[in-house]
Every structure is written in C-alpha cells, then in structure tokens.
Input
Amino acid sequence: MTMADDPSVPAGVTVPDTKLARAATELVRDTVSELIYDHSRRVYFFGSLQGRNRDLSFDPELLYIGAMFHDLGLGESFHGSGRRFEVDSADEARRFLRANQVPEDSVRRVWTAIALHTTPGVPEFMEPEVALVTAGVEYDVLGIGYHDIGEDDRAAVVALHPRPGFKQRILGAFTDGVRHKPETTFGNVKADVLAHYVPGFERGDFVRTILDSPWPE
Output
C-alpha cells in the first residue's frame, strides 16, 4: 500500500471500506489527473474534519462519493457538453450510484452536493453531505476556515495527498475545464477564472441581460 492509498489519517478519519467506495476510488483514479485525484481525496478528509468540528452527523460513504466525483466534469470528454462542469460531474456520480443500486434519496444528496459545490452561501444550510462537500472544497481551494482544523491534522492530510504548486495547477485545470464552454460561467465563480486566464473572454452581465431582454417594459 502506498501512502496515497492509506485509508486513514491520525485524526481518525477513514475512507469507507465498502465495495461502493472502492469502486469510486478506482473509477476516479483511472479517469482524472493526479492533481484532481489528490484534491478530491483531500476534500473528503477536510470535509469530514469540518463535519466533526460542526458536530454534524453525516454518511461518510455519500460524502466520499461526492468528494471524489465533484470535479470529474472538468475532463476533456465534457468540454463540448454545453453544461456547467458541476452538472456534468453530478450526473456522472448519479449514473455511478444508480448502476450500484443506491437508494434515490442518497443519489439526490450526492447530486446536489456536487452541483452546488461552487455556489457559496447555500450548501451550508442543506443536508450535511451537501454542506460538507462544499466545506471540503472551500478549505482546500480557498482556505476558508483554515484554522478550524489543527496544524497536525492538516499536515497529515497533505502528507497523504500532497499539493505541490496547487494554487496555479488547480487554476489551470479550472481554465482548461471550462474555456471551451464560456457561456456556462455566467453568474458563477468560474467567470473569474476565464477573465484572468483566457484573452478576449467577456463575462455575462446580469443587469445588461435584463435591460436588453425582449420585454418592452
């Protein structure tokens, strides 16, 4: 077993030892880059630790599936989908869960967790699995709540799944994942990414959209 495959960290957070979780790990590891795989695993660990901090009762298996699939839609096969990458990721998770006969309420939770993980201010008020996928993403990408997790626990997670040059590399992955469908960034955070990294990109303007609508008044 390599360090990256170690299912535990000293804080006691464990990757669910279930057939479903193992299948998800294999699928994602074989589909995405090392960057996205390590990021997704960290999202699970950090989301779990934040769940402990917030005294939330959550299903570790559902949180793990949500974390592992949340960036799948950035892949090249989805560049022409015309849909937000979050929706592509959520749909892939839903297909995977339904193929494994997971109950529909659980499927819905995972789909929602992934679809909303870049929509700040909403997931935190929803089911714990939904809230904690976003919490894990916000921790790993944005550093939100950085000091809520102790230095030893944070270091243990990063030792399992290192993040060399992560800031620039993840921004590159975001850019590559959505630059072919810029219209899907209207009204969401990925418009900021394209504005920084894609020359000639023009973000949609909500006010202009209203004023220029075909309504006469």
